[in-house]
# Entry
Amino acid sequence: MHNSKVTKKHLLASLLMTCSIVATGVVEAKTYNIGTDATFPPFEYMENNKPAGFDIDILSKILEQSGDEANFIDTRFSNLISGLRANKFDILISGLYITPERLKIVDMVPYYKTTESVLVAKDSAYQPKGKMDLCGKTVASIKGSKFPEQLAKISTETCVPAGKPAISVREFTTSAEGIQAVLAKAVDAHYDDTSVAQSLAEKLHGRVVISSTDSFFPILGGIAVRKGDTAMLEKLTKGLEAIKSSGVYEQLVQKYRLQAPTAEDITNYMPK
# Structure
C-alpha cells in the first residue's frame, strides 16, 4: 500500500511538471552541429585548440537568444554544403557567399557584406590594382569557394575581349596554402575575401600586401540551413534581429572590422 502511494505521488509530480512546462512554454535547450572551416580568419580560426572568430561569436550569440548552443565542427570548405545536405551539420557558417546556385540547394540568412582583394608578395614587382591586371597571370584561390568562378568570369568578360590571355587559376584547400604558394613564387597572386586578405597580411607582418584598389564583386555572406528548413531559418533570423537590436551585432562587426549590410544592400545583392 505504501509503495502504491509513493508511485501515485511520483506520477502526480511528473504530471504537474509536464503541465507546467507546457503552460510556461519552456522548451528544452538544444545543441546544434555547426559546420565551419576554421582556416578563414577573421571569420573562423583555431585559438587555443578551439574555434574562434566573427562567425563563431555571432552564431553563438544568435543561438543564445533561443537558449540553444553551438557545437562547431571544423571541416574543409569544399565539404560544407555536402555535409549539411547529408545531415552531418544542422547549420553552416563559414564566410559563405550567397549565390543563386547555392540558394537552389540551401536556404541562407544574410549577415555581412564583402568584396574581394588580391594579395602579392611585398617585394614583388607585380602589384595588380584591378581585374585587367590579373590577365595572363597565375592566381591562387580556395577550392570549393566562389573565387575560382569569379576569376574565370574576369577571364571571359574582361581579359579575352581585350585581347589578353586568360587567368590561370590554381585552387588550394585553404587560404594559408594559397599564400604559401605566393611566397614560394609558385603563383603570382592570391585572390580572397577582403577581410581574410587583411587578416593574412597582418599575420605575416607585411610579407604579403593587398595590392588591389578596385572593387571586384560586392556580395552578401550568409548562414546556411537545409533547403526548406523553415523552423531553423526563422530561429536564426529572429536571433540575428535580437542581437542587432541589443547592439551585440554591431559590437562584433566593429571588433572584427567587417561590414554590416544595409537594407539597400540586401535588396541589391540578395539573389532573386
